[in-house]
Amino acid sequence: MGNFIRFRLERWLQRGAFHQLLLVTAVIILVAVLGGLAAFLTTDAFDDLFDAVWWSFLRLTDPGYLGDDQGMALRIISTIVTVLGYVLFLGSLIAIMTQWLTSTLERFERGLSPISLQGHVVILGWTSRTPEIVRQLLQARGRLERFLQSHDQRLLHIVVVAEDVNAQRRFRLRKYLGSAWNNRQVFLRSGSPTSLEDLQRFGLPKAAAIVIPGDEFRFGGGGASDARTVKILLNLGETLNSQTSVAGPAITAEVFDPRKEAVAKRVLQRDMEVVTGESVVAQLLVQSIRDPRLVDVYMELLTYNNGCSPYVRAFSEFSGQHPTALNTRFEKAVVLGALRMEEGEIVTYLGPSDNFKLRKEDRLVFIARSYNDCLPSSENRSNPRVESNASTDFRAEQVSVRLMVVGWSRRVLVLLEQLLKSGFQAVDITIVSRTPIKQRKAALRWQAFDPARLAIHHIEADFTALGVVENLEYEGIDSVFLLAGGNANSAEDSDARAIVSYELLVSAFETNFQSEDRTPNVTIEMAHVTSTLRHARNSDLVLVRPRVLGYIQSHVVLSRELNSVFSALFAPTQGANISIHDISAYRDLEGGGLSFAELEGLAAERGEVAVGLLVSNNGAEYEVELCPPSEMICNKHAHVIVLCQRA
Predict the structure, then answer these.
(1) Model confidence over 324-365: pLDDT tens digits?
(2) 2-109 adopts what CATH topology?
(3) Considering 150, 280, 360, 443, which has the largest number of Cβ atoms within 10 A of its Cβ?
(4) Nearest-CA neighbor of 339 among 579, 627, 562?
(5) What topology does CATH give the domain 400-546?
(6) Helix axes 222-241, 410-421, angle to 10 degrees
């Protein structure tokens, strides 16, 4: 019987503050009646029972009456009732009201109320990319203004959906954004993006854009992250299709496995952009093998308000002409190629072949400092004519490469795929990892890699263990990659291990090599957006993958065409690629300087497009200068950034 009563009482209290108040009120009335009845029966101070009950209720609710009572029996009853009043009336009511107020404030803090906005951006999921996406969107200027105008909005509103929203998460986001934080623009909402019911609260049909970032650590690996993305897209499609909106928001999603791109689009059954995170990072790693300075060029293109960025504009009047031939019409921008719709897909042609002609619906791809710089002048400008007296040609592309990769995960397979696509005739790679060799070979067995071009050497060891780094063979190695992930439990753990590995590696280089110039280049991959390496060598590269992917996704949110543009720019395949050449390959500058306009003419004669310069005053440190003024004079230490066809 006791268990039954406790069970019923528990069920009643779980109904909320109102039912809890009803129970306490009932107990207070019961105590008041019992106290009044006891006083009425044991004393002659009251004429009727009602007066006694009222006397008891006053003592129960206000202890100030305690000194007015006369007689031992009445004082004892009054004391008992007053003490019970402290516990029941004050204690219980305060506890219930405090609990109710706390839960109400927590509910508002978690953001459980439905969104009442339109034209906003919704980020479905808190991942390592989320803070950077928010920051880049808030810092965008001209591109953001055009995005807002297209959706009839004056101010950008960003809704960030996380499974657990609290004061700590809000503080971390605010600290990361710094001066970019604005309470009027950024809203955190609690909910699960994989829940169909929760998706109803975020105003998705009225949103301008939806972003689904991935995270290899938070969701248990790249495969689990992709499965989560597909699940979100499935629910998202059902949510949007049930609404009357025809166009709907622009959707951007990240997947790790490039094969899942087709799966994502098929599940959603709507136009969307898919960023293949593993491929993007692998492409940047391969580009760093070609020339580590290329990554600095790409990072400038990715970062808002820091130099130049890619832009897309339509000029139907140039129909029938070749894209790069139009560079003489643009003073402040460089034409790289064109965008064309083919079978419903956006295709980017960078430095297309000579027989490529613009169609009326094609759009030009530019690099410029602003969208307004991508406007043609009324007349063709003629570059000054100079003769090339270069004694040497630009250096030939590497035909073979020797690498050491520290760590094992699926991204190693993607890296190998990109290496073979890049045109290297021979790839020799040594993989050092704690992952058993048998497990690695089992994964490689299902890949269609060309064994005639690829040689893989496996070493099963903990790279940070005593004696491992010191006794590995580095002679002849071109680059060492310290990959994030592997067996780490979190991004922070992965980065801590990578930093330790880097410092051990540099120490080993100092022991084994007499000169830093002879050591392999080291690329360290960071997995947490705030991680950094403060004392990296000048020749080494630090690649923060969530920051890079956050950059790309923020660009694609505001201009979906840029997904195709960045894919074409990063892909280290045969065809048009950005390369860096010594200026002496165009003209010997011992006798004087060369203007960038003259350099453009020399590059055009070789079928190249001069994009910018690596400017150096001392021949050592350099700065990337894209789209420099035509009159800018280049010295002998400068290097030329060009778009050219790879052999």
Answers:
(1) 989 988 989 999 999 999 988 899 999 888 899 999 999 999
(2) Helix Hairpins (1.10.287)
(3) 280
(4) 562
(5) Rossmann fold (3.40.50)
(6) 90
